[in-house]
Write the structure tokens for this entry.
Amino acid sequence: MTEPPQSIQLSLLSHTNVGKTSLARTLLREDIGEVSDRPHVTELAEEHVLIESTAGDKLVLWDTPGFGDSGRLLKRLKSSGQPVGWLLAQVWDRFTDRPFWCSQQAMRNAREASDVVLYVVSAGESPGSAAYVNAELQILGWIGKPIVLLLNQLGPPRGIEDTAAEVERWRTHVAAFPLVRSVLSFDAFARCWVQESTLLEHVQPLLREDQQAAFARLREAWKVRNLDVFRESMQILVKQLVAVSLDGESIAERSVKQKARAWIGSVTSSTPVEDATVGLAQGALAKRLDAQVRNTTEQLVRLHGLTGRATDDVLKSIGREFSVERPTDADKAGLVGGIVSGALAGLAADLAAGGLTFGAGALLGGVLGAYGTRELTRAYNLARGSEMGTVRWSSEFLSQRAAAALTRYLAVAHFGRGRGEFVSGTEPAHWTEVVGAAVQVRYSALEQVWSSARGGMASELLEKMLEPTLADIAKDVLIRLYPDSAPPVFA
């Protein structure tokens, strides 16, 4: 016979106003309870299902009222021969003695419902100054349930060393409490989803033997759900990057007078002559890119169970991020071509086009040199697909967009629902370094995709080509940021 499905209970406990409900919202990916900067917002223990396995097992999370005046309560408990029984037998008024009443509700839930207690503390306070932590851990010691201590309110995501130092500081402080089995960094506002798997990993050995199989199924269900979100996130980003790589804007044909002025200016001046048609094309590309970034970010936000709209600014400066592919000017090519012949005529065409495709131009020059400079120029234009002239994004810029897309993904993947609506912010400096290093490792693979896009490959094929590369870069980034959490997730 197969074993019946089980329900495993986790209780969130903490001092009042430390962020239990914010953490619960982040884990559940939905708004529950009330979040407010005042004490005792949560009045009653509330039960929520975190995940359900295919076998019907349930992982239940309890959001409980916060502890109140813990020091005074501890003194009362110490004066009683049976502290837990005394605490739960007392009748305190919900309104006139709210701190004691809330503490009683939290203790009752921990004793009667929980298999493991998730005790939340604020990392914004030093362990020594948060006197209520010692009092509450002593109180929970009488309950006898295993405890995982979670460091909340850490602020923006930190580097590995800083986070490890903070965890060790708290681990040392609570070493005197044997029921505290683990200390983890788990911020309600800035945790990453791979850290959730680490939390479940630390919970499992604290459960009874008869709960192990059910919890293993729940962990697998959690992993599958998160990996599905990860894969869909990569697909969203891939579609955007492929669309950008294929995007181009035609350049209007210039009059003979405009050509002559631009040609003379380029010869007689060290400053490039501005071309209004190129500027207009660049502006159109920038607007489309901005819309794509906003749309993609909003898709990621919804996928991660968040709300809000992308607030990325319109690109302010494009600089040298465009690759201009203007049809080779036959008149200009004729002038330059007068000093070369044969195979070098292709080089002349390349010089006229800005020297962007030397290899292709030289090859065509060798094959078609006998046709003369003007005929060669026309063949060269046809081969490049640039009869009308086009402004596109450069390969360098596209690789930068891949890095930017992954950084944007990190912002969404770290955003805790307790913070309210998603708002784009300034990413931590170490994210930029880690993403840049991971992109550099696979830079040649990205270049192949951009080259294939310039060659006219269909978007569906480009997406299949780019997706594994982008996913590998993202995995590499997460493993670099969370070396203890991410590797098991992607194993």
